[in-house]
Amino acid sequence: xxxxxxxxxxxxxxxxxxxxxxxxxxxxxxxxxxxxxxxxxxxxxxxxxxxxxxxxxxxxxxxxxxxxxxxxxxxxxxxxxxxxxxxxxxxxxxxxxxxxxxxxxxxxxxxxxxxxxxxxxxxxxxxxxxxxxxxxxxxxxxxxxxxxxxxxxxxxxxxxxxxxxxxxxxxxxxxxxxxxxxxxxxxxxxxxxxxxxxxxxxxxxxxxxxxxxxxxxxxxxxxxxxxxxxxxxxxxxxxxxxxxxxxxxxxxxxxxxxxxxxxxxxxxxxxxxxxxxxxxxxxxxxxxxxxxxxxxxxxxxxxxxxxxxxxxxxxxxxxxxxxxxxxxxxxxxxxx
Length: 336
Hints:
Helix content: 40-55%
Shape: globular
CATH architecture of the domain at 3-141 and 233-273: 3-Layer(aba) Sandwich
Oligomer: single chain
């Protein structure tokens, strides 16, 4: 990623020409990347720390291949910030994590609009800070799709009775599975692949970058498929203890990640393109409304009953969807 530019910045920093005076030296970030130091997201954060040096921050990053460990280390105070999925960090602030709400963002253009709003709006900035924690960056990691071992399953009704692998820490998963009449089978990133591939479950959800490392083709190769109706937009979110960083760092950080949105999205689009076309299951237009209605029911329940979703964020996302397509049934209903 911009290798020449990175080398130049590093060289200048070494002689003290690129970096501004450090206000709060010694910040540490715990960075989750399934591929560790060899991964794209670790590389992205390396580039970020170089630019952050010009804002007065002096950041060291630690690579983690286990997200739960990275999250626990941050909450234990072992690092000043963490890069982890929004759903994993939901307990700290459900406003930023709600951009991952079920069915709330149907395409990447709307996700980019939302990330821009969060980077530029002072009102949004206030909501991104809760207690000592503040969300200072969003990285797209791909829409989560439902992988099914039987490609004949392409309606909401046909999900009834299926064993669906769900992340233990995902508050939305039980509500979604209950809504479709499925059977929830607890899993984590380490077990979801084997359970799906070996037939321990009938379905699981995953974004395209997870297809190859989790070898999900094994569970698809005997008549399976991927339902092309995004369940949610996965993101990695950078959360920090804001008092540990220089004045103005948070706003500059959010803008930096927005400006690198397309660069991160390329990773996702390549992964989606690498999946054989035979596995994708397109949802006919006349059935898409059925999926949208189910998604809406789940979001409203998670907003009202469990408080897992932030109502204000859901309202903004609804406005973005309806601005793009005012013919959607939800635009007249105004349930969010």
